[in-house]
Amino acid sequence: MSLLSLTWRNIRGNAFRSWVVFLCALVVAGFALSTTLIMRGAENSLRLALARLGADIVVVPEGSESKVETALLMGTPATVWMPQENMQKISAVPGVAVASPQLYLSTLHDASCCTVPDMFLVAYDPATDFTIQPWLKRRFGNDLKLGEAVGGTHIFVPPGEQNIKLYGYFVSLKGNLEPTGTGLDQSLFFTFDTARDMARISHTRAERALQIMPDSISAVLVKVVPGTKPQDVALGILHAVPGVTPIESPNMFQAYRKQMAGLLKTTLALLTITWALSVVLLGLVFSMAANERRREIGVLRALGARREYVFKSLLAEAVLLALAGGAAGIALGAFTIFLFRNLLISSLGIPFLFPSAAPLLVLVGGGLVVALVSVTTAALVPAYRISHQDPALAMRE
Description:
Number of domains: 2
Low-confidence stretches: none
Mean pLDDT: 78
Helix content: 55-70%
Strand order of the largest sheet: 6-7-5-8-4-3-10-1-11
Number of helices: 13
Distance between the termini: 25 Å
Strand content: 5-15%
């Protein structure tokens, strides 16, 4: 009898034991993959959001740090103001290479003059911008014109329409940026000229006019001179410009980083407990199976089966069940995370980006390894013990 046929016969011969092992492998692999997907997806979102901003320092009105970070990361509409003259003061600080202002606006909630409710709108200055302009040049070879905009990956023109309507103003969507898993994916970007034109039109076409404070901006993105420490430049901005808070790029989204760290500790603790309980349960299952099959193994040994053959057949049984359960758990975990990713973002309050194919395959391999190690570790001692028992003694029991 071949090793594979013996293993398959043993699996079918005890359905209860096989299902217990299968389900334990499913839970361990599925939980491990889901936890890793959530944490890696959140980390990738933060990294891509910072890369999309492209700034070494973000200068915001004093007291609005969390509001701006929430808007940029989760897409929650925010409206903050500071004097436009701050732009010139920031540009004059030693170590500042480029400073570019941005204006944060939002659509009206459930208003007929807006196609999309509660959208985060970002106006930028094309003369100084270093975040949207490079992408536009690479993608289209030119800048945005009056009335044109680019959106995050979740922004689209409604079916049957040719434009997006905001405050009664029709905006032409020129393209979509790459996904980041953050609020930037549901944000719309256009120039200051388009924002002012929209505000002008809104007075006659919107339910409520778009109000833009005169000579005001919401934030300033800063690139520092190469070789200059951002900390020194941030300190210089803090002293030179009253009423603002400079946030260095590595310090952006600190509240979300702390939240993710707490979530990581909790999930790792749960994963460790789940893994330990699963291994203990599997060890008991394999020990019970070893006791039940003492006579069977004794007969095999008496018929000439070597210890190595018996040991390998028992481990092969564990490996097949681990791979089957692990694969099922991984498929179930990945499908659940993908299907409910938006609910996950809103309930946990963190950004999330589902990984692309190559990183996902690595995570799948890791989940299978966890399931395989868990099951084989639990089966190792019982398999060794039963394969080294005395055949004659086993047959008499």
